[in-house]
Write a structure and sequence with these properties.
There is one protein chain. This protein folds into 2 domains: 2-197, inorganic pyrophosphatase (n-terminal core); 201-330, Diaminopimelate Epimerase, Chain A, domain 1, CATH 3.10.310. Helix 2 runs antiparallel to helix 5, helix 5 (148-161) runs antiparallel to helix 6 (172-183) and helix 5 (148-161) crosses helix 7 (188-197). It is α/β, with parallel strands linked by helices. The strands form 2 sheets. The chain has a 6-stranded parallel sheet. A 6-stranded mixed sheet has the order 7-8-9-10-12-11, with helices on both faces. The chain is elongated, with a radius of gyration of 21 Å. The chain has 12 helices and 12 strands. The structure holds manganese (II) ion. Manganese (II) ion binds at residues 30, 86, 111, 130-131, 161, 338.
Length: 338
């Protein structure tokens, strides 16, 4: 099935002239890398392209070549084809609905299990580790040379969704693609440094404070930290600065569930949950109106910091108690986060 749709997409990209490319809101490296790689390929083919993301480019992706071509709003009246990449739901598309509706044809390319195939052409492959892997396979079929720009964009996409080729979705298929991208000019050290190692001074200070406040329960199987409003105000920090902090909480040896509580300025408490084992933290998040994946989930509670901590930890303790202590044999590798 996918072979037929891929061929149809190749035909459309060859025949049509103008393209509107978009992805999901709050874009990550897979989203940004995928749209920019496909844009570069279409430009090589002499096509007119516009890349739109209403949320712009996150600081984390500001090193990706050609990211200056991502616009907050379309400037063209209409395009022949609308391409929606790495976006699992209609309500997460980072382009004005009327701009996509004005296209003759809409195409979805995605790797999320939950992706809804509601475009004219839908290539959804949950066995792909990243949307960038599908874009790589698509570009291989186009009359396009994979240059250093395309290679860097695609490597950024693959590295993002595999956690730097560490998660359980790191397959021979994605490593072979990555190997070719390095041959074509992607710099693994530079890209990995920007994505996973470089932090702002503020983010580093917040991380230090969060780790200095670690607390544990259930014999070390439950680990959490709390960041209050006063801490944020003192550092003039924002949500970008606590990206990844919860992963450090989860990574404490022996932890099965890691939680980070962050007091917002909107009367709500943002709760990030991570699981290191067989426990499904999306079920805890859903009970409080949130959601996510098995190993990574989140929710927001409209209450005080103390009450949010008490309620979420109560549920986490129940979840851990229901199964009793687990042996290390029960641990499963990290799963894909996005
Ligand atoms: Mn993705």
């Amino acid at each position: 099935m996918s072979e037929a749709v891929v061929q149809q997409i190749v035909n459309v990209l060859g025949e049509k002239r103008t393209f509107l490319l978009t992805t999901h809101i709050h874009p990550d490296g897979d989203a940004i890398g995928s749209v920019l790689a496909l844009r570069a390929a279409l430009v090589q083919m002499g096509k007119a392209c516009e890349v739109v993301n209403t949320d712009g480019v996150p600081q984390l992706c500001s090193f990706v070549p050609t990211c200056e071509f991502i616009l907050a709003q379309p400037t063209c009246a209409r395009a022949d084809v609308g391409l929606i990449l790495d976006c699992s739901g209609q309500d997460r598309i980072a382009a004005p609905p009327e701009a996509l509706a004005a296209c003759d044809l809409r195409i979805i390319i995605d790797h999320h299990q939950s992706s809804q195939p509601n475009a004219d052409l839908n290539w959804i492959d949950p066995t792909a580790s990243a949307t960038g892997e599908l874009i790589y396979e698509l570009i291989k079929r186009l009359p396009v040379e994979i240059d250093a720009t395309i290679a860097t964009c695609l490597y950024t996409a693959l590295a993002t969704d595999t956690g730097g080729f560490r998660f359980s979705n790191t397959t021979p298929r994605v490593l072979r693609a990555a190997a070719e991208l390095v041959e074509r000019g992607a710099d693994p050290h530079k890209i990995t440094y920007h994505l996973f190692e470089e932090r702002s001074a503020k983010a580093s200070k917040i991380l230090g404070i969060a780790l200095s406040r670690l607390q544990q329960d259930c014999g070390g199987r439950l680990t959490w930290s709390v960041l209050d409003r006063a801490t944020f105000d003192a550092l003039q920090a924002d949500d970008d600065d606590i990206e990844n902090v919860v992963n450090f909480v989860r990574n404490v040896r022996g932890t099965e569930i890691g939680v980070l509580f962050r007091e917002g300025d909107d009367g709500r408490v943002r709760v990030s949950l991570r699981s290191n084992s067989r426990y499904d933290v999306s079920r805890i998040a859903e009970e409080f109106g949130g959601g996510g994946h098995r190993a990574a989930a989140g929710c927001r509670l409209r209450t005080t910091l103390e009450d949010a901590v008490a309620r979420v930890l109560h549920r986490a303790r129940q979840v851990l108690a229901a199964d009793g202590p687990s042996s290390p044999m029960n641990h499963q590798p990290l799963t894909m986060l996005s």
